[in-house]
Amino acid sequence: MPTEQEILNSIKGSTNSSKPAEPEPTEDYSKTRETSAFIWETVKVIIISLAIILPIRYYLVQPFFVKGASMEDNLHDGDYLLIDEISYRFNDPKRGDIIVFRYPENPSQFFIKRIIGLPGETVEIKNDEVTIYNDDFKQGLKLEENYLSLNQQTIGNLRSELDGDEYFVLGDNRLQSSDSRRWGELNKSFITGKAFLRLWPFNRLTKIPVISY
Question: 87 an active-site residue?
């Protein structure tokens, strides 16, 4: 007679033989899994990158391409700049800042100029000179604009009184600039931000200098 162990072995063998064998993973199946994993990792990288870049792009820093010659010889056509959008939320624009703003006569266009006159001041242009009148300089302060090229001329004969939220802006290339001399004062609401870094071309990569008068 079979022993108890032989009976158990016989039952176990019968059970194992009735269970279908699991198929081995095929090469196509493995490739599909690898492709899916790669796609998912790529999607995660894109999502994380957008979560980081978009707030910076739309709320802190914006790129800007200079078009035209109005800021020569300091900025040139094709220069690639970074614009600081957050500083003016905490501090007022300063004289000498190079700013990007929406053109008041067509807000879909962006201009780049330098701030010359501040809110509450009076700006006078006469005899190729710019004079600022304010509480500190009631007799007038003639600006020494060392950042202009030697052949520049500030053409015009005008006197502009600025309200509490208005700025007077000029291009550094005064002979080829459409600025406050032509279309008037710039309301602060049109200002996008301050140029702070030139990234391109690489041989002129530099921080935009702070101007002191």
Answer: no
Convert the pLDDT of each residue in 89-142 to its tens digit. 899 999 999 999 999 999 999 999 999 999 999 999 999 999 999 999 999 999
Domain ranges of the chain: 59-207
How far apart CA 118 and CA 145 sit, in angstroms, is 16
Which two three-digit tokens encode residue 148? 């202009």
Does the domain spanning 59-207 belong to CATH 3.40.50.300? no
Is pTM beyond 0.90? Reply is: no
Which residue of the set 67, 113, 126, 138 is catalytic?
A: 113
In angstroms, rounded to a whole number, what is the distance separating the alpha carbons of residues 2 and 4? 7
List Cα–Cα distances, 63 to 19, 23, 123, 198, in angstroms.
Answer: 65, 56, 31, 10
46-80 residue pLDDT tens: 665 555 455 455 546 678 889 999 999 999 999 99
Residue in 19, 44, 70, 188 annotated catalytic: 70
Amino acid in the structure at residue 41:
E
114 and 100 Cβ atoms separated by less than 8 Å: no
Q: Tokens 């052949």 — which residue?
A: 151
CA 195 to chain centre: 8
What is residue 30's predicted lDDT score, i.e. its pLDDT? Answer: 62
Catalytic status, residue 113: yes
